Amino acid sequence: MVPVLSDLQKGERVKMADKLKLAIARGATCSGCDVEIVDINEKILDVIKIADIVYAAVIMDTKLKEVEKWDDGYIDITFHHGAIRDSENEHIAKLFRKKSKILISFGSCSCYGGIPGLANVTNKDEIFKESYMDTPSTVNPDFVVPLPEWKDETGHKLTLPRFYDEVFSLDDIVTVDYYLPGCPPLVTQINQALDAIISGKLPPKGSVLASEKALCDECPREKPKKINIERIYRPHEIELNPDKCLLEQGIICLGPATRAGCDAKCIRANMPCRGCLGATAAAIDQGGSILSAITSILAISDKETQLSEEDIEKLVGQIKDPLGTFYRFSMPKSLLRKVEKEKK
Ligand code: SF4
Ligand code: SF4
Ligand code: SF4
């Protein structure tokens, strides 16, 4: 007998004979998430004791057509990585939702739209123009662009997935049961999620399988009581003190607005947090949250009356690519995007 969701949530251990069926489905992905799953090394031995992997495009040859024939709910748990950017991604998302008892959004592309979601600052036509017409790296004298349907000289019809005008997260398309964010989620996070599955101790549906705290809480650097910075630097422009908070040194670090759980991996390598674990449990909008934290530490807040508009603009202008910096992983989920869509 295959264990069902209620068995897993009741905290019952999975019996060896009752192997779970696991799947790894993919949307618009760089496959870094696949690589991280393979990186769990010997943990895979614990996984195969309790589960069979029934679909994983990167390591197996199971076809989607076969998945389509399976009963609904046939798969116990699907890990889905990648955003939804075209009609094939959408088909896969809906198919695996239907065939799975539990669907886990795996990685920040799937949870929030991730890096592909940055394309939401533009649209399909602009992207095709840049990629196939204006590009200096492609020889395309006839300005051919990918078409969803095309007939060759024999009348044979060829099809391609339809490229959407915007990028979506998985839960924009289907209901998601759990979220495992990160770009990619770290092996420690994956192992914790697998332990919860193996021991049947998954939290309530809708949970994010990561810490509730902010990254600053697990950051080992000295945190001053008050920060007041007059200049913003990029990491290569300054010699960084490895013990002091990066924000205090004028480096944009998304730690205050980012969920903890990675043991401050980038910070320990003397690089600022870019926010890949997404917003903290308390923040609605990751970009808005870090923007408000940064505004409060810029010298503007203390000297507003003495600074001219030009000075303020200069100070804020030191933040390179604010949209890409503050919403690198979460643009499709941002309030900014929501407001823009509502206006349209
Ligand atoms: S979350 Fe990161 S590693 Fe995973 S598919 Fe997206 S870009 Fe790649
Ligand atoms: S802002 Fe960055 S460097 Fe400073 S405490 Fe938070 S995570 Fe650490
Ligand atoms: S420090 Fe930030 S960007 Fe780096 S792994 Fe952790 S959450 Fe992601």
Specify the CATH homologous superfamily of the largest domain. Answer: NADH:ubiquinone oxidoreductase-like, 20kDa subunit
Task: Using the CA coordinates, give the radius of gyration.
Answer: 23 Å
Please name the CATH topology of the largest domain.
Rossmann fold
Question: What is the CATH-assigned architecture of the largest domain?
Answer: 3-Layer(aba) Sandwich
Give the helix proportion (percent range).
Answer: 25-40%
Q: How far is it from the N-terminal to the C-terminal residue, by CA? A: 51 Å
Largest sheet: 5 strands, parallel
Q: Give the uncertain stretches in residue-range form.
A: 1-17
Small ligands present: iron/sulfur cluster
Would you mind describing this structure in some detail?
The protein is an alpha/beta fold and 344 residues long. The chain folds into 2 domains: 147 residues, NADH:ubiquinone oxidoreductase-like, 20kDa subunit (Rossmann fold); 119 residues, no CATH class. It has 15 helices and 9 strands. It has a 5-stranded parallel β-sheet with strand order 2-1-3-5-9, sandwiched between helices. Strands 4-8 form a two-stranded antiparallel sheet. It has a two-stranded antiparallel ribbon with strand order 6-7. A hairpin with a 5-residue loop joins strand 6 and strand 7. It is globular and about 70 Å long. It starts with a helix and ends with a helix. The site of one iron/sulfur cluster has 12 residues, from helix 10.
